[in-house]
Design a protein that fits this description.
The complex is a heterodimer of chains A (257) and B (61).
Chain A lengths: L2 H16 L2 H21 L3 E13 L4 E13 L3 E8 L3 E6 L3 E6 L4 E6 L4 H10 L15 H5 L5 E10 L2 E9 L4 E7 L6 E7 L8 E11 L17 E2 L17 E2 L3
Parallel strand pairs in A: 6-12
Antiparallel strand pairs in A: 1-2, 1-11, 2-3, 3-4, 4-5, 5-6, 7-8, 8-9, 9-10, 10-11
Chain B lengths: L1 H15 L26 E5 L14
The chains are: A alpha+beta (257), B alpha+beta (61).
């Protein structure tokens, strides 16, 4: 006898859950577009970042690897990045023509001619060198146009506080991954934090980038984007000879490679 | 007159010393960069993806 009532209650709750989604989505899109426009127009800019990369062992243990680094960008075609982690100490310099990737821990480097913009260099790194730049989605000159079409669901989650800064919080879904972004409130809507959840992978490991010390214009320390060969450094021509430049150490063995 | 001479004297002294040495803020001096080696071998079955855009088939992202 109670069954029909219970079913009605469930339907009501389900209905309430989906209402209001359109208003949330429009606001979220607006915030994301504002961030994308701001990033495209801002040059130079610099930031410090902290990353955490989760991996899941064959015993279903979830581990987290952490790193920190810096980014210095001058649009459209100059970038300097460093990343220091437990297993790699790397530097990337791009001056619009030559890309240099330095394994500072092992004093080796590789160079490639990749004339063009930062966007083009990021694509080449991924396609040619099989070294996709983590978090590079946010360095693109058209973040909104590249990332928004990939989202099948968008949620405006209000705001959160990241590193002491109040940031608007948006969540996106697509088939393979869920991802979230926190965007600084105010007239400099930079990305405070970026989290990608690989939900199709056992234990849904996450990759997270958190930004601090966002600086623009005259606050940015001048970078010359020139590469000076470190003393006794070895130049290699094959990316495989560069050594450990990933956040994930080579000593950790992957099952599916 | 005396104060002016003192300032010039001080500046001259600093110039002789090669300027002020910048303080290097780093936990690990670059010359001895220590790269950790995991002592426990780990075999992983899955890793979080690090870009929203999909990578080409077969390429770890």
């Amino acid at each position: 006898m109670a069954k029909p009532v219970a079913v009605c209650a469930l339907a009501l709750v389900a209905g309430l859950g989906t209402s209001g989604a359109y208003a949330d989505e429009a606001d979220a899109k607006k915030l994301f577009k504002a961030m994308s426009d701001y990033l495209a127009q801002t040059s130079p800019f610099s930031l410090d970042f902290d990353t955490s990369l989760e991996i899941v062992t064959s015993d279903h243990q979830k581990l987290m690897l952490t790193s920190s680094g810096t980014v210095n960008v001058q649009r459209p075609n100059k970038i300097q990045m460093t990343r220091h982690g437990g297993f790699a100490n790397v530097k990337l310099i791009f001056d619009g023509t030559t890309l240099t990737l330095i394994n500072e821990a092992e004093n080796r480097y590789i160079q490639a001619e990749v004339p063009g913009t930062i966007d083009h260099m990021i694509d080449e790194l991924r396609e040619k060198f099989h070294k996709p730049l983590p978090g590079a989605d946010l360095l693109l000159s058209d973040v909104y146009d590249q990332l928004m079409p990939l989202a099948t669901d968008i949620k405006d989650l209000g705001s959160g506080v990241v590193g002491g800064v109040e940031c608007d919080h948006i969540a996106f879904r697509n088939q393979d991954i869920d991802w979230q972004i926190w965007i600084a409130q105010g007239n400099k809507p930079y990305p405070c934090r970026y989290v990608i959840t690989s939900k199709q992978v056992d234990q849904a490991p996450q990759y997270s980038v958190q930004v601090r010390n966002w600086n623009t214009g005259s606050e940015v320390s001048v970078a010359n984007y020139e590469f000076h060969v470190p003393p006794n450094a070895e130049k290699v021509n094959d990316p495989k000879e560069l050594g450990n430049t990933d956040e994930l150490p080579n000593e950790f063995r992957g099952a599916a490679q | 007159m005396k104060i002016g001479l003192t300032v010039i004297g001080l500046l001259g002294f600093l110039a002789l010393m090669g300027g002020v040495t910048p303080i290097v803020h780093s936990i690990i001096p670059t010359a001895e960069a220590i790269v950790g080696r995991p002592l426990t071998p780990v075999s992983y079955a899955g890793v979080a993806r690090r870009t929203t855009r999909r990578c080409a088939a077969g390429v770890y992202c």
